[in-house]
Amino acid sequence: MMAQYLEIKAEHADALLFYRMGDFYELFFDDAVAAAEALDIALTKRGKHLGEDIAMCGVPVHSAEGYLLTLIRKGFRVAVCEQLENPAEAKKRGSKSVVKRGVVRLVTPGTLTEESLLEARRHNYLAAIAEVRGEHALAYADISTGALHVMSLPLPRIGPELARLMPSEVLVADQDQSLSRDLVTDIGAAMTPLGRSAFDSTSAARRLCDLFGVQTLDAFGSFERAEIAAMGALVEYLEITQKGRLPLLQPPQRENLAGAMQIDAATRRNLELTHALSGGRAGSLLAVMDRTMTAGGARLLERRLSSPSRNLAVIHERQEMVSFAVDRSRFRGDMRAYLRKVPDVDRAMSRLALDRGGPRDLVALRNALAAAEEIAGLLQGEALPEPLAQLAQDLTGHDRLLNLLDQALIAEPPLLARDGGFIADGYDADLDESRQLRDEGRGVIARMQAEYIEETGISSLKVKHNNVLGYFIEVTATHAERMLSAPLNETFKHRQTTANQVRFTTVPLSEMETRILNAGGRALEIEKRLYDGLKRAVLDEAPALGQLARALAQLDLTTALADLAVEANWCRPKVDESRALTITGGRHPVVEQALRAQGNGPFVANDCALGDESDIWLLTGPNMAGKSTFLRQNALIALLAQMGSFVPAANAHIGIVSQLFSRVGASDDLARGRSTFMVEMVETAAILNQADAGALVILDEIGRGTATYDGLSIAWATLEHLHEVNGCRALFATHYHELTNLTEKLARVDNATVAVKEHEGDVIFLHEVRRGAADRSYGVQVAKLAGLPASVIERARIVLDALERGEREGGSARDALIDDLPLFSSRPPAPVAPPRSSEVEEALKSVLPDELSPRDALALIYELKSKLPVTETK
């Protein structure tokens, strides 16, 4: 056995080998040590090899999926080695023969299909990067749903596209590992190198044609050589990992970079589109928007949110569908109630195609077809816009398959086909008979006994059973002569004579005995055969079922967006080819929901107007006033508009945004030796080098990570470059008030500020964005709100006053003032006694304004005035 293990392990040296031993997967040697540590299970020993103990650990087969998930998440690959025959067959070759085993599957991050290993509401992409003669392409597939996409793109765009897709695993050519490592590491994916032959475009074309059963790929579109190479590498890797059992991939769809808004990795992270900065889904835009009822609808939402369209026809079509659902509350409610019943069609189909499915996947498809029929009936009663009418057609035409599955399957089947019991009674006569024999063997024998009594006329005849003879007919010795005489002797064959009884058998009884003894196994075999037939019937309808799944996902997303728009009071934006970014009463969807959940009052809505006379707003104001929120909300509104959703505003007019760039927040990248300021500069450089005239750029506090005049200079030059070179729309937030003077020099730059109110030395944030410039940043007041010690705040005020006075009086005067500032004493300052309240304040504490009449209020004013201290006047 160990020789077999070592032979199989040598073929899969880079993976942990799950070696099937009865009801356990066992691991040996270094695999056992690594797995025991990763899974926190016991490490034991089994025999010796080359004089040393063999380390061993194991996991039960029935719970292996949980262990697989843990290992995959910790970066391991797992080769699953199964028994290919039962022990009885092995013994036929000799008592010491080893059961045949072989690896049936390589489990890797990008090739998961099991429901328990995947997030139902997210895609699990396997991607491949190919390069042919300087041209690059990216292909990606989700084998759990069958999606297959490919695109040509320049090398600098690979990183942003990987950030959009967030694949679990990325395939690269051996010689390209160093080039791709940083790109793959940034998104937390596993990188798998393949030999150069896997990316050969000629063999890749043949591989793809064989997969889809065509002579040429022209039927699916015109593909570049690099695109074919990338797709071919995907297919070869799937053949390797699935051991020749390929998933049910859909025909490849070629994507056009110009068809979608381009969003780089830093922008996705800063805007928290699908993940919050904390790393989880909670707090992201996706979490706020996701009201979908189905897993397919949730995945479609994430795709559209990650890749907003630039195609006006597509955007308007999606808006029409959402508007239709918004205007019909009853229709929307009924639709969502039906959609709640829809299982995950795509993943059920994929598991069946890979032979990892079971009866529950067939029942899921039956339930989906039944729900689709109900939804189609609901749509028939409405005057539908064209896009919805097309979706309604995709839901119909599956009556034959639905009837087949409905008749064949019980309501709640077991998980595995090998458990049996999932085919409905009355569907197959042979199965019903086998089940009857299995479950009612005694009754069958009793009926045969009654038939034999009638035939022989011997009322004392019995049909009995023992472990030696099996079933037999027994009569007393006095009746034996009749049984041995013609014509009964032709039917009843003598088997045994005892002291008082004689035993006989018949051919039907022997056959029945065999059938009864084998009834359980035969029933299971029949069910497996019927299961295979049902699976083939489903897979034969794969293209139509794929259309149905996509239609259900679109209907789900449409009604979910409509439900959100109605409840959150979102509006339908006007989207066109203009340069407008005109938003009235815009709100940040995530912040607004958080405020509502916390009961902290309403979100303060704000307007934005870019594209007519000004392309850039220079936004000033204090920290904590809401500048970053304002910047982000306008970027999100543009993004939502182009994905086809309503937006959180009273009114919105969005000219198509080609690229979305965001540089908001501060972070470092210590792993690459980058300081916070270096990260800021790298992201700013990417914006200035890539943004075109159709881009929307939001920049916050450029230059703040370095010395004041260095930072001011960088911010100044950046603003000028956006205006003069990039020519894009931008929102530029800064604390450098000197930049506000640039509005006199740069024609398309306007000043805007976030309003605050100062009261008795404290600052009150109004969160209102207005035209104009701030005259100060209120940093000391914000520091006070944060809880800095009173002594620090007071010292900061003294230093600030000196610096501002020096700035007004000139550089030398400022230096002199700084030199004159008294140094802090080494002793902590004496505590400041809280001020005593006045008589007026004490009197006001007990006043309840709502209970005062006008006369009482006037009397109170006279009373309070009398308590004021008397001041002398000259």
Automatic annotation (TrEMBL):
PROSITE patterns tied to this protein: DNA_MISMATCH_REPAIR_2 (PS00486)
Q: Which domain of life is it from?
A: Bacteria
InterPro entries this protein is in? DNA_mismatch_repair_MutS, DNA_mismatch_repair_MutS-lik_N, DNA_mismatch_repair_MutS/MSH, DNA_mismatch_repair_MutS_C, DNA_mismatch_repair_MutS_clamp, DNA_mismatch_repair_MutS_core, DNA_mismatch_repair_MutS_N, DNA_mismatch_repair_MutS_sf
Q: Where is the DNA mismatch repair proteins mutS family domain?
A: 695-711
Residues annotated as binding ATP: G621, P622, N623, M624, A625, G626, K627, S628
Q: Which UniProt keywords apply?
A: ATP-binding, DNA damage, DNA repair, DNA-binding, Nucleotide-binding
One of this protein's Pfam families, by short name? MutS_I
Q: What does this protein do?
A: This protein is involved in the repair of mismatches in DNA. It is possible that it carries out the mismatch recognition step. This protein has a weak ATPase activity.
**Family listed:** Belongs to the DNA mismatch repair MutS family.
What PANTHER family would the database entry show?
DNA MISMATCH REPAIR PROTEIN MSH1, MITOCHONDRIAL, DNA MISMATCH REPAIR PROTEIN MUTS FAMILY MEMBER
Q: Which HAMAP family match?
A: MutS
* The protein's name in its UniProt record: DNA mismatch repair protein MutS
Its lineage opens with: Bacteria, Pseudomonadati, Pseudomonadota, Alphaproteobacteria, Rhodobacterales
Gene name of the record: mutS
